[in-house]
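Sample 3 of the quickstart, ligand 2-keto-D-gluconic acid:
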Amino acid sequence: AESRPRVWVSQPLFDDVIGRLDEYFDVQSTAQVSEYAAGEIAAHLRQAHGAVVTLNERIGTAEIAGAAHLRAIANVGVGYNNLDIPALSAAGIIATNTPDVLTETTADFGFALLMATARRITEAERWLRAGQWQQWSFSSMLGSDLHGSTLGILGMGRIGQGIARRGAGFGMRVLYHNRSRLPAAVEGQCQASYVDLDSLLRQSDHLLLVLPYSPEVHHLIDASALSKMKPSATLVNIARGGIVDEVALAAALAQGRLAGAGLDVYEGEPQVRPELLALDNVVLTPHIASASLATRRAMVTLAVDNLIAALGEGPQAGRPATPINADVITGK
Ligand code: 8YV
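Result:
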């Protein structure tokens, strides 16, 4: 029989969803969560026509060197800072991501992290479990309110808008900053007002980071930005760790210049800085904002459909639903 295109799946995802690739391709997948060296990724890609990857796999010039057959990479995740898009485009490789399907789940989690941080839920639970609840005290574990406060959203894409709608529902005043201002109709739907970054930092009682990572926003939230925030404010990051200078953040939290932080993402994840681990006023979760069962399944489903289409198969042949570098497809 004629040999079929080969697909590499970098991590264990959902076997039944990944199994749909078998109809068209020879699939090589792994049963174990794997951490790959660059050379190992390159070796897998050299054999492959397509790949399904996660944020754990960094793919750039070195990884695609010698990947003569590679035509498509389906990233499971909306953020794609793990991919060097210019390098993939230059090599004629289509890249796709998984927007939309994770928007509401991720916005829900942003709010969960905000509430846990503002109301000190995990801190209070640690205290209780440690047997320190000897008597009820009127003045212990006092947090800050969401209702009536100002919610700041940095990055007003799909997830940011989902968070804005939730904020309005909680009776918060919603401010946002974004590379570009949203159309008035969209601002109206989200009940959110545009402000410059400086005003966002100064006015927010609760600041959520929901912007895509790029080198331009590396350490955007540094010591100087943190110094503009209210000492009573909380900061929540569900975007990418590199947006925040964690050393400056830990110092601000330790010195009472910021009330609390909720972090789902880290500069060196899965490593978390000891300075952060040592603090009580920070809620730390392991990059799980999109991690509901239904949404994680929907992400893999979209990635699989994208790959099938990008490799010219199935009902959408040649037209993956959510390409990152659509110019590769159209040849423009
Ligand atoms: C994913 C994410 O878990 O979508 C993103 O950008 O960070 C998460 O939803 C991750 O990308 C999986 O690869």
